Amino acid sequence: MHVVVVGCGRVGSSLARQLTEAEHTVAVIDRKPDAFVRLGDEFTGRVIAGIGFDRDRLIEAGIEEAGALASVTNGDNSNILIARVARETFGIERVVARIYDPRRAAIYQRLGIATVATVAWTTERVLRRLIPDTLSVEWVDPSARVAVVERQIGRGWAGHRLLEIEDSGLARVVALSRLGVAQLPSPSLVAQEGDVVYLAVAADSLEQIEALLLGPAKGGH
C-alpha cells in the first residue's frame, strides 16, 4: 500500500521508516527540507518539501494512488485541514490526524476522522500505571456510542466465570490479559485477582461499568 505521511518530526519519521520496513511505499511531506535528515540514509521513500495541505504537493506525493494518509505535524489546525483535504478531495478512507487538544479530537472523531490525541493518550497510560483501578477508554467509535475499555477487575470477581460480566447487559467481554498474556474468553474461564479485561460497552454506561467491575451483584454465581 502507498501511504502519505505529512510531518517529518519524531513521530512522522518513525512512522515512515516502519512503513517502509513493512514493505509499503511511502512519501513524506514537510515544510522544512532539513527535517528529512531524521529519516536516515536507508529510507527508500519519497520526500517532498512543502505545505501538507497544498494540493500540488499531495499529488506529487502520490495521494491519488495512496491507500492511507497520516498527518502528524505539530499543529492541530494543519493536521485537521490536511485530513479533510485527503478525505473530501481525494477520497482517502484511511486518514489519521494527530491532535494535541483532546476536546478537538473528540469532535473530529465523531465526524469520522480518526485522531490520536497525544496528551490524552499519554495521560491515560500514566494514570493506569499509577492507579491500576482507573477505567481506561481505549477506543470510541466515530458516533461516540460504543467504547472499548480496559480495567483490572475487582477482587469480588475472583472465582466467578468471567462471562458472568455479560449477564448485566452492560458489556461484552472482548479479551482478558492475565500475567501479561492475552486470551479470548471461553465460557468456562474463571476470573482471577489481577486479571485485566477489555470490554465493549455503550459509551453512556461508563459509570455503571465502574460499579459492575467491583464484583458480581448479590445473588450472582
Topology, pairings included?
Blueprint: E1 2-6, H1 10-21, E2 25-30, E3 46-49, H2 55-60, E4 68-71, H3 76-89, E5 94-99, H4 102-110, E6 114-117, H5 118-130, E7 136-140, E8 146-152, E9 171-178, E10 181-183, E11 196-202, H6 206-212
Account of the protein in words:
- The model has no long low-confidence stretch (mean pLDDT about 85).
- The strands form two sheets. The protein has a six-stranded parallel β-sheet, sandwiched between helices.
- A hairpin with a 5-residue loop joins β7 and β8 (about 145-150).
- It has helices at about 10-20, 55-60, 75-90, 100-110, 120-130, 205-210; strands at about 1-5, 25-30, 45-50, 70, 95-100, 115, 135-140, 145-150, 170-180, 180-185, 195-200.
- It folds into two domains: about 1-120, NAD(P)-binding Rossmann-like Domain (Rossmann fold, 3-Layer(aba) Sandwich), CATH 3.40.50.720; about 130-210, Regulator of K+ conductance, C-terminal domain (Alpha-Beta Plaits, 2-Layer Sandwich).
- The N and C termini lie far apart (about 50 Å).
- With about 220 residues, the chain is α/β, with parallel strands linked by helices.
- It is elongated and about 65 Å long.
- Helix content is about 30%, strand content about 25%.
Number of domains: 2
- What is the helix fraction of residues, given as a range? 25-40%
Q: Any guess at the CATH architecture of the largest domain?
A: 3-Layer(aba) Sandwich
Quantity of strands, as a count: 11
Radius of gyration: 21 Å
Q: Total number of helical segments?
A: 6
Tell me the strand percentage band: 25-35%
Observed structural traits:
Rossmann fold; 6 helices; 221 residues; 28% helix; 11 strands; 2 domains; elongated; Alpha-Beta Plaits; 6-stranded parallel β-sheet; 5-stranded antiparallel β-sheet; alpha/beta
